Amino acid sequence: MIQTAKTSEFEKADPILSAFDQLEKRLSQKGPAWVHLVRRAAISHFAELGFPTTKDEEWKYTNVAPIAELAFRPTGPYAPGSLMPGSIEEFTFAGLRGQRLVFINGHYAPDLSSVVPPVDGLQAGSLATALHGGVTGLEKHLARYARYNENAFVALNTAFFQDGACIVIPAQQVLEEPIHLLFIATAQDAGATACPRNLIIAQEESQAKIIESYVSLADATHVTNAVTELVLEAGAKVEHCKIQNESCNAWHIATIEAHLGRNCQLLSHSVSIGARLARNNINVTLDAERIEATLNGLYLGKGGQLVDHHTAICHAQPHCQSHEHYHGVLDGHAQGVFNGKIFVRPEAQKTDAKQTNRNLLLSQEAAINTKPQLEIFADDVKCTHGATVGQLDEEALFYLRARGIGLDAARQMLIWAFASDILDRISMEPVRKHLDQLLLRWFARKVKKAS
Amino acid sequence: MLEIKNLSAGVDGKVILKGINLTIHPGEVHAIMGPNGSGKSTLAQVLVGRADYEVTGGEVIYNGRDLLDMDPEERAREGVFLAFQYPVEIPGVNSTYFLKAALNEVRKHKGLPELDAIDFLSLVKERMKILELDQSLLNRSVNEGFSGGEKKRNEIFQMAVLEPRLAILDETDSGLDIDALKIVASGVNKLKRPDNAQLVITHYQRLLNYIVPDYVHVLFDGRIIKSGDKSLALELEEKGYDWILQDEAHSVLAVNS
User: Fold this and answer.
1) Residue boundaries of the structural domains of chain A
2) Do A416 and B92 touch (CB under 8 A)?
3) Number of folded domains that form chain B
4) Mean pLDDT by 10 residues, chain A (451 residues)
5) Residue of A325, A403, A411, A425 for testing the chain B interface, max B β-carbons within 10 Å
6) CB–CB of B38/B219 below 8 Å?
7) Fewest beta carbons less than 10 Å away: which of A425, A427, B35, B187?
8) pTM > 0.80
């Protein structure tokens, strides 16, 4: 039985392996040798791991077999000029004045990006350019955190990534304006797979705000398999906001791997609205003392969408705090998955970890699988968690209606309040405003009934 | 304005209202008194369209229309207002936003233009003074963290903004100290106009010292068993509900004999 499963995984992996050989041939003259070594290591791990199945505990409720069955087509490079700046305007955030790096199908689009006068010493641009142009110090970080030996999608990304953002915020630098990384899928073919790879390094005592947003300009069954490695050195403060609003035919898998140094603060937001299936892995390692990590998330599901957040917070050193707040709103026969792991290693005394996950189910068919998973090996710690699943408050609905507010508007008001509880934690006003618009559009989005 | 004819209603198969008859004209203030469990709050809830209650008989005509046929929001837009006995806390819904949405629904329904933020705020500030409410409440979520007294005052404040034609006050006096009671009552009195009416539901006569009713009805076991003018409330206060029951029993005996 198991043997058969393995064999079929390998058969599926075959076209991927040959695609890798082609890519390696094409790229052989480019980039530093160590990157090729990493790619090769990653593809051999992928060949070993294969796509996960629902028998895998980590993927129990999230069936990615349809992704494995798609013809695997790594997306080709972007030809400058093939998109007019006007066509991406709706994805930019009014009022945001910082750098905007645009990636089309995972490839940097310089003509669509807006690079404002560079801040001293700030590196913010294409990862491919950084690697080919010999930006030093990347080897120490790239592919050192996201575990391609454990996660098949990370392995696939590591083997196939061609571009993404490379951001290095120099020590002591405080970036006033957020950096917006905008990933647009335009591929028309089913199975077109973009593997954007981002490396963000906030050096000692630096401060930055970074937005990663993922959208589609086409309705094809495209795949995004993104990996972001986020390194905060001692005393750094970073607010990172990922917004996923791809087409409802898209498959979206993303991993954020954050490695945090002493005294630093990470504020992470993950907002998931689009895609047919969206899986977000957010792994945070608190590997020094006095770190504060906050993970906020909002996921919305309608129709037959599946939205999955797997977060893992690893307290490896004493005197650290982590706070996690995730809210989900599920309508139609959408399914949600929330798995929140908190590990407290024996050395991590005086850990303070809080986790809450609240879910609103708007229909009988919508479902959520929520699972807090705390593994605590230190004895002097404060760890709390709570998960709730419920419907809209009938008393509140009636109160609003009794004041003249119609049923739909009253429901929206309550859902809005529930979502805002998370979104209000985003400090960037233009992002907040943009999300308000997306929320309004989400309310208006009609979905076909399941046949 | 409001004609309740032989209304009966219940919840979960239990009959609570057993044939209510009541007519209210514009400009009138009616009080409904009665002991706990007599059906006072049920009547209020049925009038504003709470779905938990099932109407099993009778009808309610409001300005010539079948009130029971309307959704709760339509009743509100038509000018029916309930000051809730237990106002609901709605975390995350801003008070100003909520009240502006409510007022504009009512205005739209009347064919009036929606108020913009500036006009709305000046209206709100003016009406807040009537209830001596602190303006900071407007920045908070609806009723969230309000004291009991603030919640009740906030109900009457909403009434002041929405200017209903028929205001139903469900035990607005409960949980209020005497000072707050005076403020609330004087607010209600200031809102009285020849073209609107008030239905004041209360357990105690105390409130009726400040909101003086034109008519007082005694509700007992789902029926109005006695009606009179404001002196009936005083008599009740003095003699208790038992007095009326005995009186009622005598009259029933008299009819039967």
Assistant:
1) 2-393
2) yes
3) 1
4) 45 78 81 90 95 95 93 90 90 90 96 82 92 88 94 96 96 95 93 96 97 94 97 98 96 98 98 97 97 98 96 97 98 97 97 97 96 95 96 96 96 96 96 95 76 39
5) A403
6) yes
7) A427
8) yes
